[in-house]
Amino acid sequence: MSGRSADAGANRRGLIVHKLLQLLPDLVPEERGGAAGRLIAAMAPDLPPDEAAALGREVLAILAQPEFAPVFGPGSRAEQAICGTVAGRSVVGQIDRLVVTPAEVLVVDLKSNRHPPGTPEATPRAYLAQLATYRALLRRLYPGRRVRAALLWTSAPRLDQLPDALLDRHAPEPP
After folding, report:
1. Predicted pLDDT of residue 8
2. Residues 81, 67: Cα–Cα separation, whole Å
3. Confidence of residue 11 (pLDDT cuts 50, 70, 90)
4. Mean pLDDT score, 126-146
5. Cβ-contact 147, 138 below 8 angstroms
6. How far apart, in Å, are the Cα atoms of 126 and each of 14, 93, 131, 146, 153?
7. Does residue 11 sit in helix, strand or coil?
8. Hey, which of 39, 50, 105, 107 has its CA 20 to 30 A from 75?
9. What is the DSSP string of 13-72?
10. What is the per-residue burial (b if ≥16 Cβ within 10 Å, else e) of 95-104?
């Protein structure tokens, strides 16, 4: 498979995983398997059945992990639009998963076509800058609440909480 074909396949896979993780948490667990199969078939009708089934199982396993329950649980929000001004710059974005409680806010970015780095500190700078920017906006929207950021690497699967000090080093600066 050429590099371009592999990239296209990874991108399509990422879009499918994102869509499944957006929609399936709102269903009762017993309905998720059938819905996953239908969504995968609609989004990738040419995907071989064994690959489609494996992809569905992978996403269902993520949703079943107790560690990820707050990310996908009741009250969590998928594909939350966000906009505002940070450090004198306009910001428009889309948060993959947002959890707001009376005490804190958790912003989670899903990474479905990437292999996770060994440590949060090895996370690509662009991801850290994006989440630091979202954190800055959310702090203004939810004063008095702790705002945490995390990356959910679906290929692992692993949820990396990003330390405040790490995000502080990537916080947006005025122009």
Report:
1. 66
2. 25
3. confident
4. 96
5. yes
6. 18, 14, 9, 23, 15
7. helix
8. 39
9. HHHHHHHHHHHGGGS-HHHHHHHHHHHHHHH-TTS-HHHHHHHHHHHHHHHH-GGGHHHH
10. bbbbbbeeee
